[in-house]
Design goal:
By secondary structure, the chain is of the alpha/beta class. It is 55% helix and 9% strand. A five-stranded parallel beta sheet has the order 2-1-3-4-5, with helices on both faces. The radius of gyration is 19 Å and the shape is globular. Residues 1-115 form the Response regulatory domain.
């Protein structure tokens, strides 16, 4: 079963899994009713999407599913998480965590591992999660700083321009690059941030304070 806020993503992933021989019970989008939907259908494995693993209560649906249907293996599908996010997912009862930008082969491996009772998560993510559990940070993660480290200076500039509401043409003109190059930069920013749209990228940047950290635009930076 695939459940995600973005219906298009849920349906596309369900279709891809069906083509690989899996029986997908449903592909649904409701965020508030996700847990109830899974509980009602009781699939063997559920891929449960989350847009903000660092938000309080992000994994409450996982805990509810495991409480009502402990036999269901829940694999969280989300953006690049912090170790604390991974730890929170497993603490809620998740069987695994798969990044939104994972290839379908990786998603399928996660499903098979979860089905067999193994931890369905990349070793480096699991190692970071256990490290966080054993040696918790004295201070909360600086999400804005973490996101900035993922982006090149030029990608940061693109993100700032996206947040200012500039379209591809304006971004290209402001940075002195071709529109096709601007589109490529925008797609890379969305992928690195683990979001599906420019609006989501702008909201994430505003919520974490990333725009304040980015400083003034520096056109032409590499």
């Amino acid at each position: 079963m695939v459940v995600d806020d973005h219906r298009l993503l849920a349906e596309a992933l369900a279709s891809a899994l069906k083509l690989r021989g899996h029986r997908v019970l449903a592909a649904a989008a409701p965020a508030a009713g996700a847990a109830d939907l899974v509980i009602a259908r009781a699939p063997e494995v559920c891929l449960l999407g989350t847009a903000a693993p660092a938000e309080p209560g992000a994994f409450d649906p996982v805990a509810k599913i495991k409480r009502e249907r402990p036999q269901v293996a829940v694999v969280v599908l989300g953006p690049v998480p912090s170790p604390r996010g991974i730890a929170a997912a497993f603490a809620a009862g998740a069987s695994g965590y798969v990044r939104h930008d994972e290839r379908i082969e990786g998603v399928e491996r996660a499903i098979m591992k979860a089905r067999s009772g193994e931890a369905a998560v990349a070793p480096q993510l699991l190692q970071g999660a256990f490290g966080e559990l054993l040696n918790p940070s004295a201070q909360p993660d600086d999400e804005a700083q973490r996101l900035l480290r993922m982006l090149t200076p030029r990608e940061v500039e693109v993100l700032v321009r996206v947040a200012d509401g500039e379209d591809t043409r304006l971004i290209a003109a402001g940075m002195g690059i071709a529109p096709s190059t601007a589109r490529t930069h925008v797609q890379r920013v969305l992928m690195k941030l683990g979001v599906g749209s420019r609006l989501e990228a702008a909201a994430l940047a505003a919520r974490t304070g990333l725009l304040d950290r980015a400083g003034p635009l520096n056109p032409g930076s590499e």
